[in-house]
């Protein structure tokens, strides 16, 4: 009885470990612009390009560390203030009295497509052919 109970627990853990260990890495950005400039789109595009360059090929659990070490790359101007707090890149452009935009970088990072292989389907295909 104990062996079957432990066996069921092990099977349950194996089947549901995907949700237990799923990635929750969600890097966000918040930009407060200068009131005298009108370059919101340029700045947003710049930080997306830098994010792609900096995080390309990096494991999800190390993205925060890599971003924190390369914060200066996200600046367009030397007077901009930038920080990385709670998985959010916070940028204040010059006086910071202009508009404010925020979002996240989720759609930028491409994940490889999962192809499900079934040995049962392959065997049936062999039998049919």
Q: Can you walk me through this structure?
A:
This protein is an alpha+beta fold. It has one domain (25-129). The chain has 4 helices and 4 strands. β2 and β3 (88-92) form a beta hairpin. The longest helix is centred in the first third of the chain and has 19 residues, at 2-20.
Give a concise summary.
This protein has 129 residues and is an alpha+beta fold.
Order of helices and strands: HEHHEEEH
Tell me the number of strands: 4
Shape: elongated
What is the count of helical runs? Answer: 4
Poorly predicted tracts of residues: 17-24
What is the terminal-to-terminal distance?
44 Å
Content of β-strand: 15-25%
Give a short account of the largest sheet. 4 strands, mixed
In terms of structural class, how would the helical and strand content be classed? alpha+beta
Please describe the topology of this protein.
Layout: H1 2-20, E1 28-32, H2 40-55, H3 63-69, E2 81-85, E3 88-92, E4 100-104, H4 119-128
Parallel strand pairs: 1-3
Antiparallel strand pairs: 1-4, 2-3
Features:
4 helices, alpha+beta, 129 residues, four-stranded mixed β-sheet
């Amino acid at each position: 009885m104990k062996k079957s109970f432990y066996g069921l627990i092990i099977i349950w853990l194996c089947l549901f470990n995907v949700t237990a260990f799923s990635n929750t890495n969600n890097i966000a950005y918040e930009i407060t612009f200068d009131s005298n400039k009108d370059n919101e789109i340029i700045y947003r595009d710049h930080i997306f390009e830098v994010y792609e360059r900096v995080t390309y090929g990096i494991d999800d659990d190390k993205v925060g560390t890599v971003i924190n070490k390369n914060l200066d790359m996200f600046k367009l101007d030397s007077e901009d203030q930038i920080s990385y707090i709670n998985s959010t890149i916070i940028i204040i452009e010059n006086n910071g009295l202009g508009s404010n935009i925020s979002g996240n970088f989720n759609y930028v990072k491409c994940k490889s497509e999962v192809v499900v292989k079934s040995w049962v389907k392959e065997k049936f295909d062999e039998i049919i052919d």
